[in-house]
Amino acid sequence: MKGRKFNNSNLLMWLALIFFAPLGVFMMWKNKRFNKPARIIISAFFSMIFLAGVVGTEDVNNDASSSLMADSQQEQSIDDGKEEQNKDQAAEEDNKAPEEDVKSEEDNSEEEVEADTKLPEENNQQENNQEEDKSTAVGAGKDESNKVTGTLKVHYIDVGQADSILIQQGDSAMLIDGGNRADDTTVKSYLDSQGITELQYVVGTHAHEDHIGGLSYIINSFKVGKIYFPRQTATTQVFQSFVNAAKNKGLNFTAPQVGKTFNLGDAVCTILAPRSSSYSGSNDYSIVLKVVYGNNSFLFTGDAEAVSEMEMVNGGLNLKADVLKLGHHGSKTATVVNFLNAVNPKYAVVSVGKDNQYGLPSQSVMDRLKSSSIPVYRTDESGTIVATSDGNTIEFNKAPGSYKPGNTQSSTTQSNSNTQSSNNTQSNSNTQSSSKPSSNSGSSQAGSGSTGTNDNTVTPPATTSTVYWTPGGKSYHTTKGCSTLSRSKTIHSGPLSSCPKDDPCDVCH
Would you state the pLDDT for residue 36? Predict the structure, then answer.
């Protein structure tokens, strides 16, 4: 009986090893069949057979699953083909619809586009950016997606050696800069003549007087919706008056954000600069705006110079425009080759004073425009210039001007006849008064018989007045005691006509 039991348990163990190795191994070790080395060999052998069987089963299952997925995809492909066929049949039926239905759908689509352009700017920024992208081929032809009504008028107001630009579209108006303080009534009278009673936007490009000087008077005289101004401050009375005028109207300055868009009627305005938070030169803080109207576009650059221009070139935004307002009144410090090529304008406009003391526009910029066959319109030669766009073509109210640089001969002659001075040295005590009455009125002249320079000059300089500058600076100074010169070791002086600097100092001028 015992031998039979032994044989039965042995049989069960071997069956378990063959058909389910883990159980057989467990039984063999529990009952201590065979010696230990034999148990190890038998356990390893049957465990390997068992694992091989398990892996083989998984492969079979995977093959079956792959086959099922392939069959499913094939069925889905057949269903998709049937669905496409049904869509084609439905499209053919739609194309057979009456013409009245097609016209009705087009009318509804146009109404939706017009409604979209009137959305508040905070909800419509993404759509405006899309419209900006569509303007890459500006002026290339009629595009229904840029459909506009009426005209866009851009007035480059003649304010001498300064900037002031009025833009009108429908009942909306925007003023970019307001000229010098002495130009405030000139700008207001021009706005009145155009029937302006409200300015949706006022843009002060930067803090220099020849751009914001007249804006305080304009803000006090008209209803204003929003004021754009860069993150820039100045200690001048002109700037403080500008700030006070905005405060008195309960308005805040809105800082420009690159890429931000807003609507002026049907026109879309995009801010392109400034792109940095701080600059070494005041002019590079200038707000740069691109205005797109249908398939036409205009670029307004304030006094932005090479640093800001190259930031825009490298910034990835679309700079192409039909009309370019030359930066910094046509100075050689702006309108660099790479920027001009990126804008690729059909026309250029420069706001500059006749026979100005800086010799602007510069010869290099005029030569650049001439070599590219870009017509230039000049306020010093033609007065106020008006460009009118219907969304496809642009017409000017004046003929293009010349490519001649600014006239500096008269100021040089005047300087030589009235001032006895060496090249870039101090004016001597025999400096005569300028022939211009305005330069003498209320100003102090160098005393007869005195020596050295007049360090207390604070009146606006005439071309014969002594000014001061440093080799590495960007501005000239009307007084040697200017606080910005206190740390300068090398200070040059001489008549303004021979000064290599274009910009007056914000502190002492």
Answer: 77
